[in-house]
Specification:
Strand content: 15-25%
Order of helices and strands: HHEHEEHEEHHEE
Number of domains: 2
Distance between the termini: 44 Å
Structural class: alpha+beta
CATH superfamily of the largest domain: Histidine kinase-like ATPase, C-terminal domain
């Protein structure tokens, strides 16, 4: 299993250079008509999202070195930053994103970059798997001594085998997800690895009309100072 994961990381590293070149080539075009400008924007957007996932895969190998500091993180600020980055993508694909903050605890113990990637990947999944005109939901609430961040989509149900793996607390490797076209499970794999590093609980809830993915983090003991 470790060799297989190492192979994934090597492949990801090899992909980064051509993706960066593709993005740079798209940025170099100028004086384009409306149709071609749209194509250029899509090239840039797709390449940037792919580069982000390649960077996340590279971070997985670095988790072993313990280089990612755990500290008090403002959970709403991270959620706002992720939703702002993906706002255009939701709008373009005719998906709505509903956000509701119900948490009184504002700080969690986490690594901001890793938490950002967890929420980003869950939201990206929700955008892909919701149907046209539907919405994804991001809800943050307190749960005893923790803060729970839940992302709900209204797409096809999550297969039982994938649900069991997530319920166990981690995903061993990226796998295809039946009934969810275009998914390699890469985002779930990344979110699982990062959550485990942060000692956060990750899971999924199957609904008749979709799936909710969540990550639950301990509140920061410094929260009382604020």
């Amino acid at each position: 299993m470790e060799k297989e994961v190492d192979g994934i990381l090597v492949a990801a590293h090899e992909l980064k250079a051509p993706l960066a070149i593709l993005r740079q080539l798209a940025l170099s075009f100028d004086e384009m008509d409306t149709k071609n400008e749209y194509i250029r924007s899509e090239m840039i957007s797709v390449s940037e999202r792919a580069i982000k996932q390649v960077n996340d895969l590279a971070k997985i190998k670095r988790l072993e070195d313990g280089l990612f500091t755990m500290e008090p993180v403002a959970v709403r600020e991270v959620c706002d930053a992720v939703s702002h980055e993906l706002e255009y993508l939701f709008s373009y694909n005719r998906r709505d994103l509903y956000i509701k903050y119900m948490n009184r605890s504002r700080l969690v113990t986490a690594n901001r970059d890793l938490l950002y990637s967890v929420i980003y990947n869950f939201l990206l999944n929700a955008m892909h798997y919701s149907g046209d005109g539907t919405r994804a939901e991001l809800i943050v609430r307190d749960n005893k001594e923790n803060v729970k961040i839940m992302i709900r989509d209204y797409g096809p149900a999550l297969p039982m085998d994938v649900w069991r793996e997530i319920k166990r607390g981690w995903v061993n490797k990226p796998t295809s997800i039946a009934m969810r076209p275009g998914s390699s499970g890469l985002g779930l794999y990344i979110a699982s690895k990062f959550s485990k590093y942060m000692n956060a609980r990750v899971g999924a809830v199957r609904h008749r009309d979709g799936t909710s993915f969540f990550v639950e983090l301990p509140t920061s003991k410094q929260a009382t100072l604020f």
